[in-house]
Structures are given as structure tokens and as C-alpha cells.
Amino acid sequence: MTESDLRRARLLAAAAVALRDLGDVLNPLGQRFADAGHELFLVGGSVRDAVLGRLGNDLDFTTDARPEAIAAILEEWADTVWDTGIAYGTVSARKGSHLVEITTYRSDSYDQVSRNPEVTFGDSLDGDLVRRDFTINAMAVAITGAGAADFHDPLDGMSDLLAGVIDTPAAPEQSFGDDPLRMLRAVRFVGQLGFSLAPRTFEAITEMADEINRITAERVRVELDKMICGEHALEAVDLLVETGLADRIIPEVPGMKLTIDEHHQHKDVYAHSLTVLQQAIDLETGDPDPVLRWAALLHDIGKPDTRRHEAGGGVSFHHHEVVGAKMARKRLRALKYPKAMVDDISQLVFLHLRFHGYGDGKWTDSAVRRYVTDAGPLLDRLHKLVRADCTTRNKRRARRLQENYDDLERRITEIAAAEDLQRVRPDLDGNAIMELLDIPPGPLVGQAWKHLKEVRLDRGPLDRDEAEAELRRWWAKRNQAD
């Protein structure tokens, strides 16, 4: 037996154990389909992940039963049942902590114009598997009342899984012509699994990259987020650029290539940004953070538009953080990201350079308060982004930057201990302002509130008498100017 055969056997044995552990879900479900005279197979990503030892609580199945029969069986078994896409033959259910999605065998045809197939229900498992996106997602395991049974792999997806290769069942040109989103899914799987593209798959994506324009921004966004949150996000981003897909969906990223960073003459801004992304990932302490990761990747996208050649051969990128924040906002909006996420990422891009004015602890307490206030709930992410942005090879300079940021965080902690930095608000609210100045609700109240907030940032908390005295001074000065 070859080493490959041994590895195959070990992975299949591990998958069998993982599926056996799900017996309380799989066995009753398989038995109900069998009692109704239908086949049931665990399929696609669920089989792939079981083999790779990463099976989660989302389980995908296929069956010869039609949607109405699927729904009827699930109604008797699941806690909740709903139509995911009844026209496409898919019914979903929740059983305990598990999400189950079951789809009737399909044998679809495409018009090569849209990505929406003409749905045709199939009559065989092999016919269903051959229409799937990649060979590693075209494997199935029979589910019976006794649990997992026969392993089906008509396209030898197991060999590609063992080799760490992403390839299509049919010619990639046909597959991507049917559904161009599969090109982006291929890149996403690189990010999630650390696999590589088969040469013919890479070539087809490169030649057909324009076809991604057929896909809606919403669908593109979903794949991009899965890609950026993968364990191998850097490789996926680089592949997105190499294939030309990035030029069509997020051109600001390849636009950073060949733009020399003023602090790192040995690498371009694109390479620097990939390094910052990796260092930001290394600083994460929990689940992948798409806001932090996107901010890390996009933090310098304003440099190409602000690049200036200075006397003496230097290069500058003045205000690239301002330009970059606007560019990030525009691109993320085009990709239909939620407003809150757009705001957070663009604000991190805008603030990422602020720390470099810290200068060995020379900021006033007022400047520290403003830094915290401007970051707001993004402060922890900003800490990570700023630290990740240190990619210099000069060890002395890198150590000084990190020590300076340690000092800034220490000062933030000290000031926060004396003041509520997370809620820097004026020491008088709107009602108190109206009562003291004897004015009705309106713009003047907002102006007074804003002035008191500025005073709060400059001087720290005021007691009631100090706040009222400051408000009266502002009011008198304003009336004199009028």
C-alpha cells in the first residue's frame, strides 16, 4: 500500500468516526428517509470537512425525494423547518444545535448569460455530483438508519483533496461559464483550506476574469468575507490579484503594486499591506475579525493617489489616510457592505496614521482623550492595526515604535482610571444647557453641547460649577461677537 493509500485510509477512517459521533442526528434522519422509500446522502462541503477533520454543525444532504416529500419528513423530525429555496429543491431545518439543508438531486442547465440555472430535478446521485463546482465538493456518503455507510466519489475528489488541489469536475471554462461566481469561490477555498488551484483552473480564471461582472455585488461580498476570514487569507488575496479578479471587484488592492512605501524601500505598498494583514491576523484573540482584516488590507490604498516625488529622491504620501478612508468607503459601498461595517473600516483607515504623531510620549492628555474618543468602540481594533502596521526591518526602530505604543496604551489606561474615556460627554446635558441659557430646543443647544465636549476633551471632567461657568463664558463671548 502506497503512502497516499495509507493517508486516504486514515482520513476516511477519521471521517467515519466524526460521522459516527453524529449518530443521534444522522441515524434517525436516514431511517425516516429509508422508511419513506428514499435515499439520503451527506454531500459536498460536509463530506469534505468530515475528511479534513473540520466538520461543523451545518450539514448538507442530497436525496431523490422531491421538495414536498423532504418537507414532510423533516416536519416529523426537526425542531424547525423552512424553505431555503423550494424552487431549487432545497428545504432546511434545525435539530438541536445542527442546521440541516437537504436538496433534491439536480441536473441543471445554464444559458451562459446569467448564473441562474434552469432547475431540473435529477434521478441519480452521480448526475447530481457531476454538476457541482469542484471535485472536492463532489463526494457523498450514504446515510441510513444505521448511520454513515458507502462512500461515493465518482470524480475522484479524494485524490484532489489529498493533493490539496482545487479543480472542476468538467472543463473549467464550461463550469465558470455556467456560473462565474465559482471563480471567486475557488479563490475563497484557497483562503479557507490553504489549497492551490489546478493549473487549468488558474488559467481559466485568468482568461475569464471579466465574467465575474455577471455576478451581483452582494454575492461577491459574501465570498470576499469568507476569503478574508480564512486561515490562509494572504494566499487568497494574492491569488485574487494574480488572476485579475481583483481588478474587476476591488481594484484598489492591485493598485497598490509597485507603489514604493516611503518607510520600506525594499517592498512595495501591496507587499507591505499583505504583511500588515498577516500581522493583524496574528494579533487576533478570538474568531476572525473581518473589520480588522479589511482595515489592515486597505489601510494604505490612498498611497497611489497621494504619491509625490520629493527633492533629493524621496517619496511622500501626505494625507493618504484621508484619501484612503474615502476610497475604502466608496469601494465597500459599491460591494454593498452594511453601513456600520463601512463606517468602521473607513474610520480605522482614517485613524491608522494618527499614532505616528505621538513622538516618544509627547502628546498631551487632551490628545490622548481625542485619540480614544475618535476611535470609540474601535479602540481595541485600532491598537491591533497600528501595531500590525510596523513592518520595518530596522529592529531598533521597530522596538521604539512598539515601546511608544506600549506607553500610549499605558497612558490611556491611567487616564481611563480617572475618567470615563469610553463615554466622553459634556458635563451638562441638553436640558441643563437650555435651562441655564434660557433658550428653546434648536441648533444653539447643539453648538453649546459641542463646545462643552471640546472643553471636556481638553481639560478632562469638570464639576457642575466649572461646567456652568464655562458655558456662561462661551455664551457671553458668542453674544459679544453677534
From TrEMBL:
Cofactor: Mg(2+)
Domain spans labelled HD/PDEase: 265-401
The keyword Transcription regulation is assigned to this record: no
Coiled-coil parts of chain: 391-418
Keyword tags: Coiled coil, Magnesium, Metal-binding, Nucleotide-binding, Nucleotidyltransferase, Transferase, tRNA processing
The keyword tRNA processing is assigned to this record: yes
GO terms assigned for molecular function: metal ion binding; nucleotide binding; nucleotidyltransferase activity; tRNA binding
The protein, known as: Poly(A) polymerase PcnA
Organism: Gordonia crocea
